[in-house]
């Protein structure tokens, strides 16, 4: 198995001195500490990125604020949409370059980087671009009596909230950033994006393309650095009006608290899950196994929407696990840049250590390792795709998010028990129900506690479908029309005549 050759422009990009992208320009601060970017397939350093200094964070936010009150406000909604579509065109033209940088820094299989990370990012960007001209208030009929025959007319304006700070994790470094700045720009806001310190490269390239597309300098800025220093400085800044965050539950909860303390700022939080998939008794074994592979192992399980808890009827569980074992054994594990690999490395050393620790926890709690449960050969952060039969619903592998390729199983005896298990968590991002009996599915869907419930599928997202969590999985919704509410203020205007 061999890696594809890197494009010359990717080699040239990696060799640059990286830092931030502020006011339409690359800005490295050579005195600032640098973070090494590691290729998860080889553990080799591929580039280094200077962290943003406090002065650079200030500049980035000031530049976004100036653009918000100036050039971007003067840009008509139609023109905003046009410019965003032009960025989508440039991303399409640079698809391979962006995909290679993404795979090199995140461990995402190159096919997935092309077809999911880049192509979906383009689709999302075009979707948001379409909304730019369709954001509007409403006219109301006012009914309170007037004393002297005067009349009133009332209407609402939807106005952009201002500068948006977008804090992005390492699993989809372009797509999740697009969800944040695409929403912001369509509504007339400007953005400062902070990528994860593990994957700081791709957004620098996207920000350059944005200026090439004609999006004015200052409208989209990128600052890099450790979350614990750069993040709080962005949230606390008085010129930041809104924070939109995707990441872990503990960090996101802290972000929410900080946003409130910084002056009740708008906040959208898309956090983790411990998502369940419940297979009803009627669902055939081989289709169950197809469903488990779709739900658990995409991008090595590093997908917030993926399922980690699987409930299978007791009469079927042995057959399902036996067949799953056979299927997992055929997956080709390899480098993210190997087009023949079907399963890549985990994204970084800390995450690798976390997933390995889960294998130990599962063994310590007498979970039965059906397949995997160990590191896989290779220089990178490789682990085996793993399936574990839990001893009980209280086991760590049934309650704590691994964010890795670890499917944990429990048998159930009746559907009420399955539903109880599915909802027995403080999280609620996604869930899936699998059955050929549509009326059963439709009766179960309203009772499943999750922001998205799929039937006979998992991990499908679409720009038109609102996405977000219930319970501790987050606040607010991204995509669909729902995003507009989170990036605009509603102003009431009343006129007497
Ligand atoms: O996430 P963090 P990490 C989960 C997954 C993973 C775990 C840790 O379980 O193992 O989170 O990953 C920035 N103020 N998910 O450490 O800490 C940080 O720099 C402001 C689920 O990468 O949540 C990064 O840009 N920002 C998830 C972003 O927050 C701060 C995707 C996310 O980092 C900050 C990824 C602070 N105090 C991991 N501290 C999902 N839901 O998709 C850090 N950050």
Automatic annotation (TrEMBL):
Classification via PROSITE patterns: ALDEHYDE_DEHYDR_GLU (PS00687)
Entry-linked Pfam families: Aldedh (PF00171)
The species this protein was found in: Paraburkholderia strydomiana
SUPFAM superfamilies: ALDH-like
Assigned keywords, A-Z: Oxidoreductase
Ranges where the Aldehyde dehydrogenase domain occurs: 33-493
Listed name of the protein: Aldehyde dehydrogenase family protein
InterPro entries hit by this protein: Ald_DH/histidinol_DH, Ald_DH_C, Ald_DH_CS_GLU, Ald_DH_N, Aldehyde_DH_dom
Record family assignment: Belongs to the aldehyde dehydrogenase family.
Claim: Iron-sulfur is one of the keywords in the record: no
Region forming the signal peptide: none
Active site per the UniProt annotation: 270
């Amino acid at each position: 198995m061999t890696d594809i050759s890197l494009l010359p422009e990717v080699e040239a990009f990696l060799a640059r001195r990286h830092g931030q992208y502020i006011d339409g320009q690359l800005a490295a601060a050579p005195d600032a500490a640098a973070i090494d970017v590691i290729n998860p397939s080889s553990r080799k350093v591929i580039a280094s990125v200077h962290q943003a200094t406090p002065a650079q964070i200030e500049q980035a936010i000031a530049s976004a604020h100036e653009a918000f009150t100036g050039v971007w406000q003067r840009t008509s909604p139609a023109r905003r949409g046009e410019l965003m579509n032009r960025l989508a065109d440039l991303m399409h033209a640079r698809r391979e370059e962006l995909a290679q940088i993404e795979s090199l820094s995140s461990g995402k299989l190159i096919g997935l980087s092309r077809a999911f990370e880049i192509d979906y990012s383009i689709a999302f960007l075009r979707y948001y671009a379409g909304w730019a001209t369709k954001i509007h208030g409403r006219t109301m009929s006012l009914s309170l009596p007037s004393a002297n025959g005067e009349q009133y007319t009332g209407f609402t304006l939807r106005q952009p909230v201002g500068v948006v700070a977008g804090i992005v994790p390492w699993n989809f470094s372009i797509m999740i950033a697009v969800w944040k700045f695409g929403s912001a720009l369509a509504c007339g806001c400007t953005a400062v994006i902070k990528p994860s310190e593990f994957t700081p490269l791709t957004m620098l390239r996207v920000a350059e393309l944005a200026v090439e597309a004609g999006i004015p300098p200052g409208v989209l800025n990128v600052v890099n650095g450790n979350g614990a220093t750069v993040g709080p400085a962005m949230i606390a800044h008085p010129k930041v009006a809104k924070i939109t965050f995707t990441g872990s539950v503990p960090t996101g909860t802290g972000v929410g608290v900080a946003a409130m303390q910084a002056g009740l700022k708008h906040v959208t939080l898309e956090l983790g899950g411990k998502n369940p998939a419940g297979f009803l008794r009627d669902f055939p074994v081989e289709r169950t196994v197809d469903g488990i592979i779709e739900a658990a192992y995409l991008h090595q399980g590093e997908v917030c929407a993926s399922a980690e808890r699987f409930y299978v009827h007791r009469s079927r569980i042995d057959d399902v696990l036996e067949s799953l074992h056979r299927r997992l054994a055929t997956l080709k594990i390899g480098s993210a840049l190997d087009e023949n690999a079907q399963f890549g490395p985990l994204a970084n050393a800390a995450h690798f250590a976390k997933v390995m620790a889960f294998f130990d926890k599962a063994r310590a709690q007498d979970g039965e390792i059906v397949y995997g449960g160990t590191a896989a050969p290779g220089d990178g952060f490789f682990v085996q795709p793993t399936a574990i039969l839990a001893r009980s619903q209280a086991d760590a592998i049934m309650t704590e998010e691994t964010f890795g390729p670890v499917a944990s199983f429990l048998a159930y005896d009746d559907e009420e028990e399955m539903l109880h298990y599915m909802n027995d968590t403080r999280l609620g991002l996604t869930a899936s129900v699998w059955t050929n009996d549509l009326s059963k599915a439709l009766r179960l869907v309203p009772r499943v506690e999750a922001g998205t419930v799929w039937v006979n599928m998992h991990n499908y997202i679409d720009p038109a479908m609102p996405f977000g969590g219930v319970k501790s999985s987050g606040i607010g919704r991204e995509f669909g029309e729902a995003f507009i509410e989170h990036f605009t203020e509603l102003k009431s205007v009343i006129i007497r005549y």
